[in-house]
Amino acid sequence: MRMRRELDPLGEKEVPFEAYYGIQTQRALENFPVSGLREHPFFVKAYVMVKKAAALTNMEVGFLDPKIGKAIVQACDEVLEGKLMDQFVVDVFQAGAGTSFNMNVNEVLANRALEIIGRPKGEYKTISPNDHVNMAQSTNDTFPTAMHVATLLALQKLFSVLENLRDAFRKKGEEFSDVIKSGRTHLNDALPVTLGQEFQAYASAIDRALRQLKIRKQEIEEVALGGTATGTGVNTHPKYRETVVKKLSEISSLNLKPASDPFEAQQSQLKIATVSSGLKELALELIRIANDLRLLNSGPTTGLSEIVLPAVQPGSSIMPGKVNPVMCECLNMIGFQIVGNDLTISLAVQAGQLELNVMMPVIIHNLLQSIELLVNYLPVFTTKCILDIKANRERCKEYLEKNPSLVTLLSPHIGYLKAAEIAKEALSRGISVRKLVLEKGLMDKKTIEEIFQPDSLIGAKKRTT
User: Fold this and answer.
1) Domain 403-457, CATH homologous superfamily name and number
2) Which residue in the list 138, 298, 316, 405 is annotated as catalytic?
3) Confidence band of 461 (pLDDT split at 50, 70, 90)
4) Contact 77/43 with Cβ under 8 angstroms?
5) Known catalytic residue: 432?
6) Is the CATH number 2.160.20.10 carried by domain 147-220+264-391?
7) What are 425-446's pLDDT values in tens digits?
8) Handedness of CA 110, 115, 120, 126 (dihedral sign)
């Protein structure tokens, strides 16, 4: 392999000749051969957007030679088009604060900019990763800014996915609005609901989680960019901070603004933590809903079997004809991973000290993974599971007829204690409450039919006397 020699403050080192990354990236490759995982493409591009905004601003305020600045901007544009993505090679588990990755970005852009002006890679006296690409910046303000930008871009996709899932549940809620079934509390028979009401409630839960995420998204529209090493903005032009954030907003098409307190923006990762918490809360709801669907589908002969989930693959390698609720099972596993990711993020957020939280690399890796899992899977879950769910109307009707909790509707007429006796006897004899009340002559048929009409069963018709 052809190599080139580069120099940094620790000395010289060989770097692959064709590589666009440089010596500090090479050191990171040797120091952190941890997971084989690289930064998410959203994060790479977000970081490059920051570098482009900085180059444009530094040219505008007169700090950066236009020839060098334009070459850096062109290199940024090429990466944003999808080129050179294989050159961002630093492991997600790396030096604290993300200095390794910041330098990976700086070196790739510097070396590509050198090529653009006809100079060889590694000629850093002409275009330097530190002096030019990283001008008026620090890892400490660029890394959290890129975290916010990447998260905002990823959330845009997630919001659309969640809206589709919510709408799918609403559609099923409307379809099943006439399917009256036994409600269940404590996993025991309770007063009736409709299958549609259950599915509408799932839609409402998704919608609430979505609205919470949209609220928390607004917090991370504030960015740390311009604070440099500790929040003071040292080595920047007086107009730099406002200008660079404005340019980053234009590049990313996001509504960004400078952090209200640049020191807090580098000390604290609470704003990102609230987004992660929102994802965890969403995951908890998704886990709960997936488990409900598995219960309602259980059977087909020994479970509830009130709904039929679509069969998407054989369920057993030994039991012919068995079909399992695999789409819900996968959603459960994704939910568990997101809850675990949030715990990692929580530990990292509280681990910041004084002027900087150095645990940012593990925070953004876990956060973007959580979003990506949902963005990748929920559309499949929506189309292959939710939209094709069928109601087992006969089973719902059968269970409803046998439900002893229907006696609750008789309590205002015969009293709680008598109603309890009826429920107990109906259950022991295996007959319906309606039939037993008629048998005992406690009510006439017309009154019972009025009490047990569908609107009364599901609470649509309120008692007036």
Assistant:
1) Fumarase/aspartase (C-terminal domain) (1.10.40.30)
2) 316
3) low
4) no
5) no
6) no
7) 888 898 888 888 888 888 888 8
8) negative
